[in-house]
Design brief:
Elements (H helix, E strand, L loop, with lengths): L2 H8 E2 L14 E2 L3 E6 L5 H16 L3 E5 L4 H9 L5 H6 L3 E5 L13 E2 L6 H15 L3 E5 L1 H8 L2 H17 L3 E7 L18 E10 L2 E11 L9 E6 L2 E4 L7
Parallel strand pairs: 3-8, 3-9, 4-5, 4-7, 5-6, 7-8
Antiparallel strand pairs: 1-2, 9-10, 10-11, 11-12
Helix pairs in contact: 6-7
This protein binds adenosine-5'-triphosphate and magnesium ion.
């Protein structure tokens, strides 16, 4: 087995320069991770880069479940970094599930659309169908918060998200699930999302002196000796770059 091959069988490289150095080479294969952060912290960009580079650099297909933004906006955001999702979708290397449009009463011409009212079993069926078609290795759910509001009750949110993360695991997917937080010091919105995932990455967009800085920490990662520091990151024209050896504050 080559070096890259043996790393890929155990660890899933993120495709984000500087990130894998923080956590022994990347995510554990088949596990689910929460990417938490306030609005604008960079969660969607982080997850898009994970999927796009997954295809381009590691030959791993990916599924993006969009509950917050319509797929056309996701494609447009990705294209700002020079990432052409549409071509990869045409080649069956990326699939985007539109779980946003019908929720807000808009029609959708997307290939994969979730109908209203939201139903976790229906979403899981769609993921299984896509999995048969594209044999994905990576998945993004953006966001658990919006699914949580559709589900309503906190006890039910925990069970439904657990069902989602276990299904993703059984399908062999290594997944990133985003979570929108509103207050500093929080890591989840409903207080349960961290219990159904194997790790938590927290992204910040904090004011330091007279400007805002993007930073990130690996808050928890089961089975991994990870950095316990808060690291600055940059959003470059080619995507996110983390500075693993620079500290903030
Ligand atoms: N091309 C770019 N160059 C530099 N910074 C950018 C670029 N595109 C986006 N950004 C930054 O990324 C931020 C948005 O990132 P992203 O959409 O990933 O955040 P998010 O955490 O998903 O937010 P939300 O919770 O609102 O969905 C912008 O507010 C901006 O600061
Ligand atoms: Mg987002």
């Amino acid at each position: 087995m080559g070096e890259l091959e043996s790393t890929l069988s155990r660890r899933v490289p993120s495709g984000i320069p500087g990130f894998d150095e923080l956590c022994e080479g990347g995510f554990l294969r088949g596990r689910s991770y929460l990417v938490s952060g306030t609005s604008g912290a960079g969660k969607t960009n982080f997850c898009l880069q994970y999927l796009y580079k997954g295809v381009l650099e590691y030959g791993e297909s990916g599924i993006f479940i969009a509950t917050e933004e319509r797929p056309e906006h996701i494609r447009a955001n990705a294209s700002m970094f020079g990432w052409d999702l549409e071509t990869l979708e045409d080649e069956n290397l990326i699939a985007i599930i539109d779980a946003c449009s019908t929720k807000i009463g808009l029609p959708s011409n997307e290939r994969y659309v979730e109908i209203k009212p939201f139903d976790m079993n229906s979403l899981l069926d769609t993921i299984i169908t896509i999995q048969d078609e594209i044999d994905a290795k990576r998945c993004v759910v953006d966001s658990t918060t919006s699914l949580g509001f559709l589900i309503g009750d906190v006890g039910k949110i925990r069970i439904e998200l657990l069902k989602l993360s276990i299904t993703l695991e059984i399908l062999g997917l290594t997944s990133l699930l985003t979570c929108e937080i509103t207050r500093e010091g929080e890591i989840t919105r409903f207080g349960v999302e961290n219990f159904v995932t194997d790790g938590v990455i927290v992204m910040y967009y904090k004011q330091v002196n007279n400007m805002r800085t993007h930073t990130l920490e690996v808050y928890k990662m089961r089975g991994t000796k990870h950095s316990t520091k808060i690291h600055p990151y940059e959003i470059t024209p080619n995507g996110i770059v983390i500075h693993p050896y620079e500290e903030v504050f």
